[in-house]
Design goal:
This protein has twelve helices and 13 strands. By secondary structure, the chain is α/β, with parallel strands linked by helices. The protein folds into two domains: about 5-30 and about 260-355, Aspartate Aminotransferase, domain 1, CATH 3.90.1150.10; about 35-255, Type I PLP-dependent aspartate aminotransferase-like (Major domain) (Aspartate Aminotransferase, domain 2, 3-Layer(aba) Sandwich). A seven-stranded mixed β-sheet has the order 2-8-7-6-5-3-4, sandwiched between helices. The longest helix has 21 residues, at about 260-280. The chain starts with a helix and ends with a helix.
Length: about 350
């Protein structure tokens, strides 16, 4: 394994013993984008690591980035800075829903959704995805009719990598409008899309969007997320002081000058996603071809409810257990392909070894 990666102290590379290849949590294995590295070094050299000050440069760079990359015209008057997207999500629920309200999620779903909704006194309502990763719009309708008041939609979807079409998003908007429901759309993986992507706000003016530079540029530890849309204007302005100034420095540099690095990164992960199905051992298959990001949702046959435990014990490769993503995660694992082709092949070799 790469000695520089092994030396990292972040969660991905520090949780397991040195003989375990980590391919689990959503951190990528690539070097930091040069514009981010340079901007952070400049800030450090001048001792500039205080609280967040003016944001005009950041918001200008953000608007340009999303316009040219995703065709999304961000209204910078409707952007709130938060420590990360899940903080933004919880603050939105506190302001725009009532205690006890049901909030719909679509399992298999990002594990913190299951904890953060009850953390702010709201109730998780599960409407699982269809077999092909499609949104169950009729299921949403039934859940709203039964009393759910909000929806958290993950687009592109984590863990499946599903990229929803304009028609699919329009159908979600229509059912939410019919029930006057509050919608929050987590688009944190959108800048890593390698197929056609439709931003939520290109379809609907309903609700709010969560986004960040953290996933696309691999800087989650710098703590900066964005809430975009009219509901963001109702959040407390002091939330920005819980975000990190280093996150602002990194995001502004990424949004303004990071396109070349991002293009190379997307090319690598897209190639890894395309190669993966043929690399996987018998009994392990991709459940839905990803159209975005570096996460692959794998169905495993004959390995029980928690295949990740088998791969870890027998193959010394760490994958994200599917059980954490809800009931549809039984018999599944999430594999991170945000790495070099060589390390991806090694991860798959270890999976095959575990199957003996």
């Amino acid at each position: 394994m790469d000695s520089q990666l092994v030396a990292r102290g972040s969660e991905k590379w520090s949780k397991y013993p040195p003989d375990v290849l980590p391919a689990w949590v959503a951190e990528m294995d690539f070097p930091l984008a040069p514009p981010i590295r340079e901007a952070l070094h400049t800030a450090i050299d001048r001792g500039d690591l205080g609280y967040i000050g003016p944001t005009d440069g950041l918001l200008e760079a953000m608007r340009g980035f999303y316009a040219r990359r995703l065709g999304w015209d961000v209204d910078t008057e409707q952007v709130a800075l938060v420590a990360d997207v899940m903080i933004g999500f919880k603050e939105l629920l506190l302001v725009h829903t009532q205690p006890g309200d049901g909030v719909i999620i679509n399992p298999p779903a990002y594990p913190p959704y299951f904890d953060d909704i009850p953390h702010v006194g709201r109730a998780v309502v599960e409407v699982p995805l269809g077999e092909d990763g499609a949104i169950d719009v009729d299921g949403l309708d039934r859940a709203f009719a039964a009393g759910a008041r909000a929806l958290l939609l993950c687009s592109p979807h984590n863990p499946t990598g599903r990229v929803y079409t304009r028609d699919e998003l329009a159908a979600v908007d229509a059912v939410a409008a019919a029930h006057d429901a509050f919608v929050v759309v987590d688009e944190i993986h959108a800048p890593l899309t390698f197929t056609d992507f439709t931003p939520w706000q290109a379809v609907s003016g309903r609700g709010a969007v969560l986004t960040s530079a953290s996933k696309a540029f691999n800087v989650p530890g710098l703590k900066l997320g964005f809430v975009v849309g009219e509901p963001a204007t109702k959040l407390h302005p002091h939330l920005r002081y819980h975000a990190g100034y280093a996150g602002l420095v990194a995001a502004e540099a990424a949004f303004r000058d990071g396109d070349d690095w991002l293009d190379e990164t997307i090319a690598t992960i897209a190639a890894n996603q395309r190669a993966l199905p043929a690399l996987l051992p018998a009994g392990v298959e991709v459940t839905y071809p990803a159209g975005a990001s570096y996460l692959a949702w794998l169905r495993c046959t004959g390995l029980g409810d928690d295949p990740a435990a088998v791969f870890l014990e027998r193959g010394r490769v760490a994958l994200q257990p599917g059980l954490g993503f809800g009931a549809p995660g039984k018999g599944h694992v999430r594999l991170n392909v945000g790495t070099t082709p060589e390390l991806l092949r090694e991860a798959v070799r270890r999976m095959a070894r575990a199957l003996g």
